[in-house]
Amino acid sequence: MAVPLTVIICCANVADTLEAACTSVAWADELIVVDSGSTDATSQIAQRYAHRYVVEPWRGHSGQKRFAAELAKHDWIFFLDGDEECSPELGRELAALSSTELERYDLMLTPRRNYVMRKRVRAWWPDELTRVFHRRRCGWSDEVLHDTRSASDPSRVRRLRGWIIHKRLSDAGFSDYFSGQRLDGRLLPVAMQMHQRGKRCHWWDLALRPGLAFFKSYVIKRGFLDGTFGLLMAQKSAVSTQLKYAALWAVQHRCHGKSDQDKAGVAR
User: Fold this and answer.
1) Inter-residue long-range contacts of 195-200, CB under 8 Å, 24+ positions, other chains counted
2) Looking at residue 146, what is its pLDDT?
3) Nearest to 135 by CA among 8, 2, 263
4) Model pLDDT, residue 266
5) Surface-to-core class of residue 11, CB atoms within 10 Å of its CB (0-12 exposed, 13-18 middle, 19+ buried)
6) Residue 204 · residue 148 · CB < 8 Å
7) Residue 167, CB half-sphere, CA atoms under 13 Å: how many?
8) 5 φ/ψ angles, rounded to the nearest 5 degrees
């Protein structure tokens, strides 16, 4: 790449996958690892590969990456998570981009191949992410669970063909993807953010959306080609959708109840 690129990995307790992440971007002009408080061997691994290793308490998904972006020497940034790898195809594609091409863009959309229990999830492809971007020319959105960026204009966005690889080597097992405890920790913050943005749950959301999520994953995205595993992932999509809207209903019901109490207090 004619224009220098900084790769940033924000992570914690990823000793099982961090080495693969770092070696997949050995071509980077700068590699920064921002650790939010690991208790395993993440620190030792990071310091073997990174040009700069920083420990920073967790600021949230967007907050952590905003902080990390300001550490970079270069304006073009590529974010990886500690359980991800840059495919050789993506590395070559980034290296081939000229400075003239990059002046035309603010943001590069990057597809991601996801793995669950070391099996590729066909139905989650292409899962495009805003991971390659110019830090001075992009805006940030404050998502609860994910960080995203936006270009100044849609014409300044380019789609890349190479991909990010997610959890290919992770030791995460069944409980990391299907446990009620994990879902509980994520659902309420998402539902509260949906409510704050004006989203409401209606009966048809609970009746129809889970089935549509299953159909999309299993049929449209061809999850059926993955046999029982594809069926499990389609069911997971349906259950997650149902619980997300159930949580939204609970949030709006609680907020409506508080509103009624406030009105009653004023009336008294």
Assistant:
1) 195/248, 195/251, 195/252, 195/255, 199/248, 200/248, 200/252
2) 78
3) 8
4) 46
5) buried
6) no
7) 13
8) -125, 135
2 burial type by CB count under 10 A (0-12 exposed, 13-18 middle, 19+ buried): exposed
Closest CA to 158 of 138, 133, 137: 133
Residues composing the chain: 268
pLDDT at site 259: 52
Tokens 């849609």 sit on residue: 154
Strand-pair partners of 150: 139
User: What structural domains and CATH numbers belong to the chain?
Assistant: 5-166 (3.90.550.10), 174-267 (no CATH)
Interatomic CA distance for residues 126 and 135, integer angstroms: 24
Q: pLDDT tens, 71-109?
A: 999 999 999 999 999 999 999 999 999 888 899 999 999
Alpha helices in the chain (DSSP H): 18-23, 42-49, 61-69, 88-95, 99-102, 174-178, 180-196, 203-215, 227-267
Report pTM: 0.86
Q: Residues 43-70: what's their mean pLDDT?
A: 94
Q: pLDDT tens digit string along 231-268? A: 999 999 999 899 899 989 999 888 766 655 454 454 45
- Within 46-175, strands assigned E span 52-55, 76-81, 84-86, 107-110, 112-116, 119-120, 129-134, 138-142, 147-151, 157-159, 164-166
